[in-house]
């Protein structure tokens, strides 16, 4: 069975899998081709029956989820977004950049000011075009800048107050990740913010003036970035984008009981509900959510409001697929960002089709027609720790292969090699344990502080007072408390000294 997986840069990878293969096998093959270890951040998307983008459940068979015969067309996208300092591989950071850049250009990332737009656009230009030579490449760069700018945002056409004050393009939501859904005619979309109705018509020349004026600001920012490497620019772009409210947020359009259309965003800290004018209606952190359910086209949310009272909200979506996708997004993102580990109630939850339901009446343990609801396997911290261990093991294997061992066939040498292998395994376990107990900020002292309400233990007593949000889940900190963990203090400090003393620095020749 052939699967055509499209990357964010429009490059298509052909993957051949078994006819009964599950989604995880297809994703693993794609990541193997790309050399990506941090595959838990990624997912595969497909177009649903109503044109919506849905996440492929990696624990279920591919052919049972996608309509029609193969070849199946999928999209490789980032499913869980984390700050750049938690991404260990350069190739993974590059794919994060591709998805965030696409969200920025499609205006699914709300930016606070025009200056910030110009700065982020200049970072993209630095990554894509490199250093700007003001004497040679300024004209060609001005032609490239418009395709890096957001497709719609409020901008000042001139600093002169005598000119028309502002121009903007109507805001479009980011519920769809398909670039084709955001294509539009700029001449029809641009309107003015002036109160005079006679100024509502804007000529093409004025539109070009606005774009040129904005590109000139981008050029000034681009010149200031001269000398910055591509990797540094990617890191800076992701760092600044991760501070935006809509970073990594899945967006859905719903209707409440009054028939009002709202936008629900499911992000790393919780659920944000806005109206179409981007006025915040509800900000619900994951710690306040009691229950999230869906039934048909409806989605229900029970939570504790700011007054400490229990509240319930109900929404209706376009179809049942979108409702189940919203329910799945809330549950999986809550487990990924806020939990220490994924609970069995999440991993074991499944549904059956009609044939499987009938078969389960006679045999309750049958796997016929069994489809899992969620495919999340690891939390944010578990993905980070797992990647560090895998990269450390790969580094050790590479060093071991680079050293040419003498070919000795004696029994004594075999016994020594056996003891050496066992010793290295113990050292690797000890190093993994030691790293898990270190502060995520300074990486020098033991963790000793728990954050509330997320309950993450990630910092030492020195770094914890400096944090306003949790470094693991980015949720706000309301209270901290000192904790005492086993194997910390003198015992772990002695392990650090032994590990540091084992590192030998070779003098330069």
From TrEMBL:
GO terms for molecular function: ubiquitin protein ligase activity; zinc ion binding. The keyword Nucleotide-binding does not apply. Pfam families: FERM_M, FERM_N, zf-C3HC4_3. SMART domains: B41, FERM_C. Its main location: other. Residues 439-474 form the RING-type domain. Residues 173-185 have a biased composition (Low complexity). Its EC number is 2.3.2.27. Residues 165-202 are annotated as: Disordered. It is found in: Cell junction; Cytoplasm. Keywords: Cell junction, Cytoplasm, Metal-binding, Transferase, Ubl conjugation pathway, Zinc, Zinc-finger. It is an enzyme of class 2 (transferase). GO terms for cellular component: anchoring junction; cell periphery; cytoplasm. Signal peptide: none annotated. It catalyses: S-ubiquitinyl-[E2 ubiquitin-conjugating enzyme]-L-cysteine + [acceptor protein]-L-lysine = [E2 ubiquitin-conjugating enzyme]-L-cysteine + N(6)-ubiquitinyl-[acceptor protein]-L-lysine. The keyword Zinc applies. One of its GO terms (biological process) is protein ubiquitination. PANTHER family: 4.1 G PROTEIN, E3 UBIQUITIN-PROTEIN LIGASE MYLIP. This is RING-type E3 ubiquitin transferase. It comes from Araneus ventricosus (Orbweaver spider). The gene is mylipa.
């Amino acid at each position: 069975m052939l699967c055509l997986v499209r990357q964010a840069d429009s490059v298509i990878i052909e993957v051949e899998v078994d006819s009964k293969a599950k989604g995880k096998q297809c994703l693993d093959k794609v990541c193997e081709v790309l050399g990506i270890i941090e595959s838990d951040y990624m997912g595969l998307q497909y177009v649903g029956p109503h044109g919506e983008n849905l996440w492929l459940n990696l624990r279920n068979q591919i052919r049972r989820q996608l309509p029609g015969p193969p070849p199946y067309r999928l999209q490789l996208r980032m499913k869980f977004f984390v700050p750049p300092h938690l991404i260990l591989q350069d190739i993974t950071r590059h794919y994060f950049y591709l998805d965030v850049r696409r969200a920025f250009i499609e205006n699914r990332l709300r930016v606070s000011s025009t200056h910030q737009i110009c700065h982020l656009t200049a970072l993209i230009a630095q990554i894509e075009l490199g250093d700007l030579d003001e004497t040679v490449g300024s004209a060609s760069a001005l032609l490239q800048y418009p395709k890096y700018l957001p497709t719609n945002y409020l901008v000042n056409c001139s600093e002169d107050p005598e000119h028309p004050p502002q121009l903007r393009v109507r805001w479009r939501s980011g519920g769809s990740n398909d670039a084709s859904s955001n294509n539009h005619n700029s001449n029809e979309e641009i309107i003015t913010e002036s109160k005079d109705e006679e100024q509502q018509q804007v000529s093409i020349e004025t539109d070009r003036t606005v774009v040129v004026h904005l590109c000139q600001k981008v050029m000034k920012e681009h010149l200031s970035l001269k000398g910055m490497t591509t990797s540094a620019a990617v890191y800076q772009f992701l760092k600044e984008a991760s501070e935006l409210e809509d970073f990594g947020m899945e967006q859905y359009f719903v209707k409440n009981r009054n028939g009002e259309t709202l936008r629900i965003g499911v992000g790393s800290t919780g659920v944000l509900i806005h109206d179409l004018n981007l006025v915040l209606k509800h900000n619900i952190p994951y710690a306040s959510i009691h229950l999230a359910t869906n039934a048909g086209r409806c989605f229900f949310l029970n939570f504790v409001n700011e007054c400490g009272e229990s509240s319930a909200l109900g929404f209706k979506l376009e179809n049942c697929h979108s409702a189940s996708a919203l329910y799945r997004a809330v549950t999986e993102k809550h487990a990924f960002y806020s939990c220490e580990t994924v609970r069995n109630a999440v991993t074991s939850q499944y549904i059956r089709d009609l044939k499987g339901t009938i078969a389960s009446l006679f045999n309750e343990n049958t796997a016929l027609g069994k489809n899992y609801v969620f495919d999340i396997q690891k939390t944010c911290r578990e993905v980070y720790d797992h990647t560090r261990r895998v990269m450390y093991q790969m580094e050790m294997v590479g060093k071991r292969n680079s050293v040419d061992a003498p070919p000795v066939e004696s029994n004594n040498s075999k016994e020594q090699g056996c003891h050496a292998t066992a010793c290295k395994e113990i050292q690797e376990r000890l190093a993994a344990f030691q790293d898990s107990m270190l502060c995520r900020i300074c990486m020098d002292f033991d963790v000793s502080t728990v954050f509330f309400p997320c309950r993450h233990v990630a910092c030492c007593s020195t770094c914890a007072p400096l944090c306003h949000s949790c470094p693991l889940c980015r949720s706000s900190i309301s209270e901290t408390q000192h904790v005492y963990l086993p194997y910390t203090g003198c015992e772990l400090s002695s392990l650090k000294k032994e590990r540091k003393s084992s590192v030998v620095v070779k003098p330069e020749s």
